[in-house]
């Protein structure tokens, strides 16, 4: 049996995101001199909180995208619309094309709503990570963050531009009613 991510229960999303984050934070705590017991407890607590927050955020972001494609759409049509949005030739099927257009518009709306807040938070995290990297030269636990956060910032900046370009390709010579 295969469970798709958008239909996964909240506890699965909680585990998929909370366990790695909690393990990383526990290892970071242990590396900073905490006892093993303290590191495990703090990693579990932080991982649980992060996992719960991510499960709510995942639902808040993913469900509107599924609804934009159309809740009545088959799984194959949802995948085709997502693929058409990301890459490849413009689909010939007007329903898939219309779903991809709705999906692009919804993604642009979601990015617009959270972009400023995300950029501020990511920038602050980058500053804290760089300070942490130089404050404790023997610890290399901040390196993944110093590498990943600029990539996330670049994604936040470039993704709307990429979506608009793809949306322009999808809408050339096409009207939403399929005519």
UniProtKB/TrEMBL annotation:
Residue stretches spanning the membrane: 9-27, 39-58, 116-135, 141-158
Source taxon at top rank: Bacteria
Keyword set, alphabetical order: Membrane, Transmembrane, Transmembrane helix
Protein name as it appears in the record: Uncharacterized protein
Organism: Kribbella ginsengisoli
Species classification: Bacteria, Bacillati, Actinomycetota, Actinomycetes, Propionibacteriales
């Amino acid at each position: 049996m295969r469970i798709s991510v958008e239909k996964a229960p909240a506890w699965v999303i909680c585990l998929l995101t909370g366990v790695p984050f909690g393990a990383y934070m526990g290892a970071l705590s242990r590396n900073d001199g905490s006892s093993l017991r303290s590191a495990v407890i703090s990693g579990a607590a932080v991982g649980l909180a992060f996992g719960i927050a991510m499960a709510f955020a995942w639902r808040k972001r993913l469900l509107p995208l599924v609804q934009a494609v159309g809740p009545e759409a088959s799984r194959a049509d949802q995948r085709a619309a997502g693929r058409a949005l990301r890459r490849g030739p413009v689909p010939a099927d007007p329903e898939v094309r219309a779903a991809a257009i709705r999906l692009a518009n919804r993604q642009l709306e979601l990015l617009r709503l959270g972009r400023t807040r995300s950029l501020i938070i990511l920038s602050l995290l980058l500053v804290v990570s760089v300070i942490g990297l130089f404050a404790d030269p023997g610890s290399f636990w901040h390196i993944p963050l110093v590498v990943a956060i600029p990539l996330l910032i670049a994604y936040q900046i470039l993704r709307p531009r990429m979506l608009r370009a793809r949306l322009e390709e999808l809408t050339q010579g096409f009207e939403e009613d399929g005519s």
